[in-house]
Amino acid sequence: MDWPIVARVDAAGTEVRRQVPDRFLGLPTSDFERSIALDTGFASAHLGLSMAYGSIGDEGRSFAAGEHALANRERLPFLERSFLVASRAYVRQDFESAIRAYNDLVDRFPENISALNNLALAHRDARQFSVAESLFRRAMRADTTIANFVFGLHSTQVMQGKFADAAATLDTLRRRFPNHPVYLTEALQDAASQQDWPRAEETARKQIAEVGADTLQLVDPYEALAQIAMARGRLADSERLWETHARVSRAAGVMSRHLFGVLQRGYLVLRYRNDAVRAVAFVDSALRVTPLDSLLPGDRRYDEVARFYLAAGQPARVGPLLADAVVNDSALHRTLLSERYWTRGLSALTSGRVTAAIDTLRLAADLHVCPSCVLPELGRAYERAGRLREASDAYQRYLITPWMWRYEPDAVELGWTLWRLADVSERLGETDRARSAWSQLLTLWNGADPAMLATIDAARGRLRKLDTR
To answer: CA-to-CA distance for 46 and 90, rounded, in angstroms?
Structure first.
């Protein structure tokens, strides 16, 4: 994992760089929070706190702190005001504006490695991976003591599928920063990007053992373990892990991640247990306990909740959620086009408007920061249109596109995308691809729960038929 770096100027006019938030390292209350307690209008501290929360996926508190910084921006010196403008564009996923703002900073302050790091991140999240890689290398040449640059380099290598280079970079991290608290998170994501689930699980369990009782640091590994178990069909294990994730995420106050876990567990019941009624009842129950409008605006995940209800056959629930999403985005001064296109595309598919669904889902797939996450929905839309070649290509792209957080979409989609690819390949007469997909599916679900047995037997039967041709 890698972070934006906060540029802050102390009382003597010296730039102070912050990389990993104190709370994430298990230290006492952060400098930022103490500063804000003394001066609630301290824009610099709010800006630093916003980036710190953002670095650990605490979106609600990150946005809230950013709004305080924005309200007090006139108290910021030029450098920090520029960082604020750029960082607000970045969190809105307006990467073009973020890149332009950070480029202006780098042009004016070519030795400012904070701006260089953040520029690299903006290019990475805009899927301009080779540019991001070169910028991280430039930052590493400027300062070899900052682990964040090496984390960033590793992530861009992974996203390009340069796994041998990424492994060498991980070795560099281990040698240069042997006790860095984030090394195991990066190693976990390295394994997940290659769908090396045994190595990913081993790394996550090691991380849990090292973290101890720090609930904030436990959120990531329990989330990963729950999703890996889910992808592999170990449903009882996954549900137990999701229960633990619910406890630690709520205890840590990371409500966006808490809600994410609720939705993923809903998908487990929906997809793997094939029980839409119970899945909807579970998510409804969680939202009654913690209504979306009781959360901080950055935590509300309206589009993801809407997509869950669409998948569960509840399209009437979607209109009010999308209306609330638009209002919420306005309050946050953002428009998450990729999320909105994804939701509207799935809504069109659910209502039978297949051509509109394809067009909208293609836009979502092109814009989304995750290069693979929308592809299963796009493949299903192509199937509904009878465009089997394009469906096969979309499914195959999903399976081979690197993503550091693959356990997130794979928990819901991996097995079923393999199934759809195998089925479509058979209909296209591509028996080798079909055989490979069925075999991968059976390997993935080897050791799955008894509840999966009928589905696994059906896949095994399809493979046997191919083998006897």
So the answer is: 16
